[in-house]
Amino acid sequence: MTMHAEASPTPVPFVVNDAVRRKMKHEKIAKGIFATMIVLMLLPLIGILGYLVSQGAPLISWDFLTTNPAKGMTQGGIWSALLGTIWLVIVSLCISAPMGVMAAVYLNEYARDNWFTRIVNLAVVNLAGVPSIVHALFGMGAFVLFFDMGRGILAASLTLAVMTMPVVITSTREALGAVPMSFREACWNVGATKWQTIWKIVLPNSISGILTGVILEISRKAGETVPIMFTGAVFFKKIQEGDFFAYGLNDQCMALSMHLYTVTTQVNGAPRELPFAVATVLIVSIILINSTAIATRAWLRSRKKW
Amino acid sequence: MVSKIQVQNLRTWYGEKQVHHGISFHVEPNEIFGIIGPAQSGKTTLLRAINRTFEFTAGTRQEGVISVDGEDVKRVRDVYELRRKIGMVAPLPVGLPLSIYDNVAFAPRSAGMRNKGELDELVERCLTQAALWDEVKDRLDSLGTKLSGGQQQRLTIARALSHQPEILCLDEFSIAIDPVTTMRIEDVLKVLKKDMTIILVTNLVQQARRLAARTMFLWNGEIIECDKTEVIFGGKPADKRTHDYVNGIFG
Hints:
The complex is a heterodimer of chains A (306) and B (251). Chain A is built from 13 helices and 2 strands; from the N terminus they run αααββαααααααααα.
C-alpha cells in the first residue's frame, strides 16, 4: 500500500521560467528578421514596377503597339520591335525546347553514370553560368560567320537557344527526377522497355515541371539584349504594319530589349516617357508569360495522380 | 528434368560492397520455393539479378550464372521477354499513376496486346486471382494510386500476373496487407502453383513453412541451408543458425 501511494505521480503544471521566455523571445526575433528581409526585397521591386508603369502607361495604346517607330525613333510605336521579339522567342523556343527536353530525358533515363555523362553534366552546369556576351560572340562566330547564316532572326534565335538550353535541361531533369523510381521499376519488372516507361509513365507525370521550365525560358529569351545585338537585331527597321509574318527567317529584326537600349542611350529628342513605355511592355509581357507558367503548373499539379 | 531456375556461384556487388558471396541453388518447376533470412541478406538483390533489373542500378557488378529454363539470363537477347516470363511483386505496393484497369493492362499492352475483349478478360482474371476484383469491379476507371495500401499491393500482384508469367517472385508481399487478405492470397498461390513456379521471399518464417516445398535460409549473402521445408522447420536442420532463426532466437 505505501509503495503504491509513493508511486502515484504529482501533476506538474506547465512552467514558464526565464529559459522559456528567452526561447520565445529568440523565436520572435528570428521571425522578425526574416520577415523584414522579405519586405526589403519587395520594396524595390514594387517601387521599380510602380514607377515604370506610372511613367510609361500613358503612352501605351493599341496604336503604340501596332505602328512602327517613326522620326528617328522619337515618335510612333514599337511594332517592329514587338514583332521581332515575338519571332525571336518562337523560333528559338522551337529549337531549344525539344532539344533540351530530349537531352534531359537521355541524361536522366538512359545515360549511365560514367565519365561521358559527368562531362556532359559539367558542361550543362557551366554553360548556364557563361555570361551572355560570350554566348553572343560564340553565336556570331558559329552561326553568323562559320555557318554563313548572316545576321538575322535564325542566327539570333540559335544563339538564344544555345544560351537557354541549360535552363531547359536542368528544369526538365528536376521534373523527371521527381517521378518516383519505384514507378519505373514496376514498369521494367513487367517487361516494358525504357521508352514505353518514359512515354506512358514518366513524361505524363513530369509534364507540369517540364512546361514550367520551358515557359520560364521564354521570359529569359525575351529579355536578353547582347546575344541578339551581335547576331541579328538592328537599331531600326520598318516592316509592314499589322502583318504578323512581316519578318522572314533570315531577316534582321528589331527587338524590345534592344529598342529599350537604343531609345535610352542613342536617340536624342525622344519623349521622356518613351523608354518607360517600352520597358513596361517588355516587363508586362514577361510577367504575363510567367503567370501562364504558374497557372499551368497549378492546373497540372491539381491533376497529380499520386 | 531441367530446373526452372539454376543459380551457380552468384556473386554481386553494389560498388565495393559485396552482397552475394557465391551462392548456388536451383528451383524446380511448379514448386513454391521459400527464401527466408534477415534484412540485408541479399534476398531482394537476388530477385533483381534473376530478372535483370539489378543492372539498372549504377555501380553494380555480378559474376556467376543464373539460368532460367536452362538459358543464361545474361545471354537472353530479348530481355523484355525474360522479364515477362517472371512476375515480380515488390515489398511496398506500387500503384502506377494510371487507372486500375490500365495498371493491369499496362504489361499486356506493352507486349503488343490490343484486342479490347482479350484485355478485359485478362484484367478480370488477374484481379480475381489477386483477390481484388470484387472490391474494384465497379470503379476500374479510378486511379490505382488512390487505393488503400493493401489494395494497391493486390493490384501489384494482379499486375505481376498480367503478363502471364511462368515464374512468380513475391518479395515480402504481405508486409502491407492484413492477415485475412494474406491468407486469401496464400490460398491463391497454392492454386497458381499448378501453372507456375513461385519464389516466395518472406520475413514471416511461418509463411514459408505454410507454403513452401523447399526453403532456403540466406544470411549475409551466403546460403546457410537449403532443404525441404520439413527439414528446415523440423527441429533438426543441419545448421544451428537455421534452427535459431526459424525459432526466433537469433541474436
